[in-house]
Every structure is written in structure tokens, then in C-alpha cells.
């Protein structure tokens, strides 16, 4: 395990004993799986106490075969003075997609969260303006979920198996 | 004395198709005369579902999608994607290929900055500079053309290296560019930068502070104009950028003039990087030895069984890809362009997320133009270099 991983993990375990459910080093940087109820406190701690002030990116992920861990949010933080990067993941079940917003911590999260809502349907509680952003407002589903095929469902001349998955 | 008369605001629809916004952006502006009180951007007019498309395409087929993100500097996007996959499959590519990539990427950066800076000048009314400098973008496109056959959506390079070494014609064009471009850039600089009208229009127009820019996730020239020296090429060097000696220009005010100046200086630095890369060009192969990912020579496909098998497997996407997740970022024309890739070992990415710098910093746009004049809003947008393709993915 890398030095950065151990440093962040011990700090998180000291402050939030039950927050980290899994951690490890991916190819490029450490990844921590965080319980949803502690997510905002962990992000605030990382930002204010440990210098991870820059939210590089965040996005939703859908794992249709993972039962009550079907949906995940990925946050990627960067500490600019020390040039350290970490990744957080928070898993949740399909019928519990409410996540507290992190816009008070990172202004940049505003549109990122709108994108995650638009494509996966995460409901960010407390978000100042949670509307669809790239798709049209009338759309009634969340297109990046795995159950939606790329091709128009009305066509029978094209099957997904010919085009990849 | 406070007036009891309620102010009469006008609602103005700027866009979605407006000749001054250089792309499809809509902003619903609440105006108090010429002053913008409130701005509300609507985006997504050219959304093409790249992240969904990428989940149905093999790794090689994703490259043309990346072309269409920031189409002013597609080669940087292409290289960023190749490097992401190379990180996933843990493939080391030869020095020569890395240097060739650096030359291409820096040419792309110059092309990108030419577009942005000349357009800022156009928006202040200086058409001449645009006409003078834009032909140099054409020369860069001619270099692309010689290397990969395409001009705008380049699809340049391959996973594992470059598709071919630079031809003699390409080298000749690069040398000619290095020789002749500085004079043209200096001429443009003389024509525009210290021009009284240009400075009056751009200084203090659409400023943002360094702290605010960081909160909004700014990267690239726009962040550096606000005085923060963050550059991915230096912080996390990729493709041998550590071998080159270059400066990171920064501004102080974060206004339109600083954004313009940072890009001007970056063009000089890019030129210097290209010169160093040409001078130090190592000998060797232009691609790594990864037959499972790198298309074999056509000649071999016709004559060797093994090459034919690999060719088939690559084209049909039947190559084994390791399971895992990687994030790789490059310094694009507009800032940190990141690729977050999850592979489940299948023939296509399980999930691919693009960190698109435009998308992230464009949300600060209302804050930057509120309280200013309508004409300054146009200038602020063009100096931020918001590219619709990258914004909407």
C-alpha cells in the first residue's frame, strides 16, 4: 500500500471509525469506499483538514449486477500543493439514490451533480438547482443506466450483440 | 433617495444560435439597460451521448469520439485517450513515439490558442489580426494532413504509439512552420496586444479571482490567468514532458486580457518545446511492441498468418483487456482533460467518463458576466474558449 493511502486511511479511521468500508491502491491512486451517511463529513474533513481542496471530477457509475450496491458515485480529489490525488466511491441501492449535495464544499460540484442526476438519477438533497443539464427536460428516463440499449428500442434490424456488449 | 418605482428589466435571449457566441450556447439574460443583472445558461444543444457511445465501442473505436470533444485541438484528446489505454494495459511506449506525440500535441495547442486569441481580437473589432494569423492554423492542419490524412477530426496516433513515422514532407513542413510562424505571431502581437482600444476593451473584463477559479474547478490557461500555476504537463508529466524546458505563463487579474496574454505566451513556449523535441528526437521505433493492440503492417497481414490473426482480433475487438480502473489526464487546450476508464475485461469500456474542462469552468460564466455590459459578456465567453463540442460531450 502506498504512503498516501495509509496516511489518508488512518486519518479517516481516527475521525470516522465506520466510514471506510474498503480501501486499496488502484493502478494510479488510492481508492476509498465510503458509507453514504458519512460521505459529506468525510469530504469536508478531506477538504478542510487534509488539503484536498480541488474536486477534479465526479461521476455516477451503474453496476447492474451488484444487488444493493448497484449505483456508485465517484469523487476524485486533488491536493494541489502536495500534488496528491485520491478517489472516493460511495455505493447505494437503486431505491436509495438520495445523496446530500456537496455544492457547499465545492462550487464546481453544481453541474457535475446535475450531470449525475441527468444520466443516472441520483437525487442530490439540498442541491440549489437540480434539473437535467445535457438532455432535454421532457426525457423520462436516465440514459446512462445499463438497462437502456444504445440503439433505438423500436428497431429490430440492429441487435446489441452485433455492436459490442 | 431611494426610488419606489420598480425597475423594468428586459429579458434577452442570447443564443442558441447567435453569430457572436461562436457555437451553440444559450444564455437567458436579464438586462437593466446595457447591464446584465442575471444570466442563466442552457447547454446540451449538441449533446451526442459520448459516454454511452463509448460503452458500445471497442478501445480503438473510441478515439474518433475524442476528436469531437475539443475539436480545435483534437490531437491532444486522441493522445490523452491512447495514454489512458496504455496505462490500463501497462504498455511502455518508445521515446521516439513520445517525442513525436509531443510535437503533435504542441502544434495542436498552438492551433487551439490561435483560434481563441484571434477570435478575442475579432470580438473587439480587430478583424485584420484574425485574417493574418488564421492561415497559420491552416499550415498546422497541413502538417496533420501529412501525418494522419485528416485535418480537423484527426484520429491521430494509435494505442501503443503513432500510426506511422513522420514523412520527409511532414518534417519539412514542421521546419518551415518553426521558421516562419514566429514572425507572424510577432506581427499579430504588435498589431493587437498593446492596441489602446483592445486593452480598453479587455482589461478588467470578466475577471475571476484565483480562489474562486479553484472553487469552480478551473484548469488550464483560464486558471493560470487568475494566477495559479497549475499545469498537468508539469505536475504529472506524461509523454516525456519532463525532458523539456519550458515556462508556465501566469496572469494576475484573471480577466480577458490576462487570458489572452497567457495564451499568447503559451504559444511561444509550445514553439520552444517543439524545437527541443525536433532537436533531441531520439532514434528508434515509433510504436511499442504490443501486437494485441497495435495494428500490424498491411503487408504482413497479407503474407503472415500471425499478423492476419492479430489484425482480425484488433478490428473485431477480441483482444483481452485487463480488468481495472484508471484515470489519466493531459493538459488540453482548455485545461485538464481527464479520462476515467473502468474496464471489466470486456471488448468495450465498462464506463468511460470524460473530465471536460469547458463543462466544468463554464458554470462560472454567469458569475463572471453579471454586473457587466452585454458586449463584455461576448468577449468573456470567447476569451474563456468555450468549445461547444467539449461542453456538451
Structure description:
- The complex is a heterodimer of chains A (165) and B (393).
- Chain A is built from three helices and seven strands, in the order αββαββββαβ.
- In chain A, a hairpin with a 4-residue loop joins strand 4 (71-79) and strand 5.
- Chain A is globular and about 55 Å long.
- In chain A, the strands form two sheets. A five-stranded mixed β-sheet of chain A has the order 1-2-5-4-3, with helices on one face.
- Chain A has helices at 3-15, 39-48, 109-120, and strands spanning 20-25, 30-34, 54-62, 71-79, 84-92, 98-100, 123-125.
- Chain A has a single domain (3-150), classed as 2-Layer Sandwich (Beta Polymerase, domain 2).
- Chain A is α/β, with parallel strands linked by helices and 165 residues long.
- Chain A is 21% helix and 27% strand.
- Chain B folds into two domains: 10-42, no CATH class; 50-392, Cytochrome-c3 Hydrogenase, chain B (Orthogonal Bundle), CATH 1.10.645.10.
- Chain B has 17 helices and six strands.
- Chain B is globular, with a radius of gyration of 22 Å.
- Chain B is mainly alpha-helical and 393 residues long.
- Helix content of chain B is 50%, strand content 10%.
- In chain B, the strands form two sheets. In chain B, strands 1-2-3 form a three-stranded antiparallel β-sheet. A three-stranded antiparallel β-sheet of chain B has the order 4-5-6.
- In chain B, strand 2 (26-32) and strand 3 (35-42) form a beta hairpin.
- The termini of chain B are far apart.
- In chain B, helix 4 (95-123) packs antiparallel against helix 5 (127-148), helix 4 (95-123) packs antiparallel against helix 16 (374-384) and helix 5 (127-148) packs antiparallel against helix 6.
- Chains A and B meet through strand 3 and helix 3 of A and helix 1, helix 8, strand 4, strand 5 and strand 6 of B.
